[in-house]
Amino acid sequence: MKQSPLLRSLAVACCCLFFRLSGPAGLGDSLAQAAEYVVAPTGDDRAAGDATAPLRTISEAARRAMPGDTVLVRAGVYRERISPLRSGQPGSPIIYRGEKLGTVFVRGSELWAPAWRREAESVYSALPDEALFNDDAYLDSGNPFQVPLASTPYGRNGRPEKQRFDYGDPNLVYTCGQIIVNGEPFTQVPFLREVESQTGTWTCHPETGRITINFGSLNPTDQTVEITTRRRIFAPHIRGLGHIIVEGFVFEHCGNQYPTNFWNTPVWAQAGAVGLRGGHHWIVRNNMIRYAHTVGIDVGAGGGNNERTETTSATIALAGQDNLIERNYIVDNGAAGLIGLDSTRMVIRGNVILRNNTLGFIGNKRYEHAGIKCHNIKDGLIEGNYIADNPLNDGVWLDNRFPGTRVTRNVIVNNGRKGVFLEMSDYDFDTALVDHNILVGNRLIQFYVHDASGSTVMHNLIANSPPASRFGQGAYIYQVTTRTRTRHHSLYNNIFVNHKTMLDINYPAYRSGPQRLDHNVYDAAPHDPTFIINSASDRPSPWSPEEFIELVRSDLGQYASGLVTLDGGKRAAMTLPLWRTFWAAHGLPNDRHSVTRQDMSVSYDAARCELSLAIPFDPAAVGSTNHAWIDKDFFGAPVPQDGGALPGPFQNLKQGRNTFRVWEGLPLLASGELPGGKD
């Protein structure tokens, strides 16, 4: 028999009562209201934990906290891994709250003042005490300096590449450790000779564990030196806890691993400085996550498990569901800002994601990084984030399925690779939505797809692909493996400005297929061959270059003389009229209402967060494709659904010079800067 709502409510209440009564000693007997546990640097973990007798560690407060309780942490530095022991309940979360953002620091490092041994003029060494490394829950080692990085950073090829690809220096090894001097992470190098020649560097001897640092003109005994002693900072050991709120902290300095092949190599699991560990109904907001050795925060039900003990909560079936990541600074981390596998209804909103991938991971088996990278995100929302200046990183990368997910109203500018990257899916039209984003100046491609199908891309500003990139595409869609297919993409009502190539799309056959395009505005002259069909419709291409060009010529028929061949015959470039003719030959009325317009320009002033857009025509004359999913523009204004919407992300766009302040969220901070302006 089904339980009535009343009986279900009584059962939940009894469960909460049991939790409170069976909790640790010293919690008090009152059930009338939730408790608040206060933590302060001057506290004592044997104290009551109230405002007059605070606790010393957040971990002790976590041990005591029950559903509905709040852990209030006063200003100071806390050096611990916080691992919540239990879930909150619906309507009664457990809250971990720093009293003011920028004043409460939780660090995965310890102060280190060893007996330094001078090795050369500015070079000193010391051996860490193993007792420092107190986060020992892992399959490999709790000492980050004894854990080799799974892939080599800085564009170098070392032992991991030698083992996997038979190239690289077998003696070149980086570790998961970090050395921080006066608040600034020093640069790890693999060889002693490099330390001796470069100020601000360090290395760890693999056999002895001795660490050697080049302090330059600094006397090490007069400096604040910190050494990462923990692999993570805030992450439960129990997987699948729910209803937890984390807000108001600066999380920094941890020695975590790069998640190479995380899906089949447990020691390389996705494990951020902050980790939900399969959590559900979490809210992580108003924090700063910085200086993680690799990953800032991990989310989702998957991602692997690098801990020796596999303990799951009673609500593990809800893992990865209904999490909110909101208004955080995720900055200056070694690889990724946010990553995750298997999330459902996750919202990532209002975050500032800057300068991640500081270690420069690029190349084979360095794929697990971006400002935001999600595998198998279902019904997700990535909205209103500022994602910029992440070196060698993509802005948003959705990989291995993304049904029902929306990427909207984000500022994605000046990242080192792609703006938005979709990979590995096979869906019908209209499975995911990318709309009203500002994709400007990302250094490779603005919108990029391979081995993926099913996106609808509408009302975006897609601008300023650097001339130095190979083809300078605004949008690039093609097949690189045989894993799945690349088709069923719809590009409507977008503005493309300042690209060598407006669109580069694979021929609609084999693993490719139909695409839909209309009501776009392209920054080109009518005679510019800036629309490309590429031959990457399967892997390898089904055609020789000669066969491919002849195939496209046959599609164009009497107009084939206007075709331009590129890349030795692997690409066929054409004008917009030829482009329409090509698609019509495949029964697709693409770009019938799209227009080419010259003399558009886009510039972005990052200091002012101002976007300048010159439109030398009436944007209302273009018309639009309607879509039921489209509701509001970049600024939240309604978008007409009568065919009269303006192209691009702004419904107040006008002919002439337009200037928009595109970010009014969290203040943008320079590297090393804290909220409130102090470090």
Brief overview:
With 679 residues, the chain is mainly β. The chain has a domain at 109-228: Golgi alpha-mannosidase II (Immunoglobulin-like), CATH 2.60.40.
Describe this entry's structure for a reader:
This protein has 679 residues and is mainly beta. It has a domain at 109-228: Golgi alpha-mannosidase II (Immunoglobulin-like). The chain has 6 helices and 52 strands. It has a 13-stranded parallel sheet with strand order 1-2-4-16-19-23-26-29-32-35-38-41-44, with helices on one face. Strands 3-5-17-20-24-27-30-33-36-39-42-45-49 form a 13-stranded parallel sheet, with no helix packed on it. Strands 18-21-25-28-31-34-37-40-43-46-48-47 form a 12-stranded mixed sheet. A hairpin with a 4-residue loop joins strand 50 and strand 51 (610-615). The protein is globular. Mean pLDDT is 94; it is low at 1-32.
Summarize the topology.
Blueprint (H helix, E strand, L loop, with lengths): L4 H17 L14 E4 L18 H7 L5 E4 L2 E4 L14 E5 L5 E4 L1 E3 L5 E2 L4 E4 L32 H7 L13 E3 L2 E2 L1 E2 L3 H6 L3 E4 L6 E4 L10 E4 L9 E2 L4 E4 L2 E5 L19 E2 L7 E3 L2 E5 L4 E3 L11 E2 L11 E3 L2 E3 L6 E7 L2 E3 L2 E3 L17 E7 L2 E3 L2 E3 L7 E4 L6 E3 L2 E3 L4 E6 L8 E4 L2 E3 L4 E6 L4 E4 L2 E3 L9 E6 L11 E3 L2 E3 L3 E6 L9 E3 L2 E2 L8 E4 L10 H12 L7 E3 L4 E4 L1 H9 L10 E2 L4 E5 L4 E6 L40 E6 L18
Parallel strand pairs: 1-2, 2-4, 3-5, 4-16, 5-17, 11-12, 15-22, 16-19, 17-20, 18-21, 19-23, 20-24, 21-25, 23-26, 24-27, 25-28, 26-29, 27-30, 28-31, 29-32, 30-33, 31-34, 32-35, 33-36, 34-37, 35-38, 36-39, 37-40, 38-41, 39-42, 40-43, 41-44, 42-45, 43-46, 45-49
Antiparallel strand pairs: 6-14, 7-8, 8-13, 9-10, 9-14, 12-13, 46-48, 47-48, 50-51, 51-52
